[in-house]
Amino acid sequence: MIPVPAEEGAFFELASLEQTEVERERLYTCLSPDELLRGDRLLDPVKRERFLVGRGILRGLLGGVTGEEAREISFCYGEYGKPSLQQASTTGSTGFNASHSGSKLLVGIVFGGEVGVDLEELRLDLDFAPMARRYFSPREQQELFSLPWEEQLPAFYRCWTRKEAYLKGIGAGFSQPSTCFDVSLLPGEKPALLAHRITPDDVDRWRLHDLPVPSGYCAALAIRNT
């Protein structure tokens, strides 16, 4: 796994969901009966395969850092569905989060903290303006639409992935409006949570990072050390 720059005990991994038949079969042996059943319920064969492969990769990564057998790992879920490990590992508390888009899976892992990640496959034809007006804060909208047209789509994805990573990190689901906090989005501006109108202390607690991903994708990670 790749260390997150300037963060102790934080790592990320970008993996392909397109695997050989032999590797798929190996990954499937790591899955729980519940995961296999969830996969069977997906009618689209591509979505089914990517779900099962993704869960197998996640289990393998968690097994590697916790010392547990991948198939023996148990998950529990927060009030709004954020997964966590049911038991503390031999290395202590381990936080993780995953996101998939297109044919890629992004996994973030942190020792002794909380983490959220978001991965988005870029769509050049995305009608992003209505999405920004609905989900971005007034400050973010003002900054986004003040940019030259050719810079707005990349800025939209920077903002979107940073906000999603933070929201997934806190595990609040839709209970916290995405408009109640501001993240940076301007070109060259450091990724950061700039302001929060409900839990202002989170500005100091959480740090945001853009992650190096292949062309055609955008990704961000949010981390809070306990």
UniProtKB/TrEMBL annotation:
One Pfam family cited in the UniProt record for this chain:
ACPS
- Start and end residues of each 4'-phosphopantetheinyl transferase domain: 115-221
Against Gene3D superfamilies, the record matches this protein to: 4'-phosphopantetheinyl transferase domain
Q: Which UniProt keywords apply?
A: Transferase
This protein's superkingdom? Bacteria
Acetylation found in the keyword field = no
The residue range of the signal peptide is none
Cite the GO molecular-function annotations of the record: transferase activity
Query: Which PANTHER family is this protein grouped with?
Result: L-AMINOADIPATE-SEMIALDEHYDE DEHYDROGENASE-PHOSPHOPANTETHEINYL TRANSFERASE (PTHR12215:SF10), PHOSPHOPANTETHEINE TRANSFERASE (PTHR12215)
What the record says about family reads:
Belongs to the P-Pant transferase superfamily. Gsp/Sfp/HetI/AcpT family.
Name used for this protein in its record = 4'-phosphopantetheinyl transferase
Species name: Geoanaerobacter pelophilus
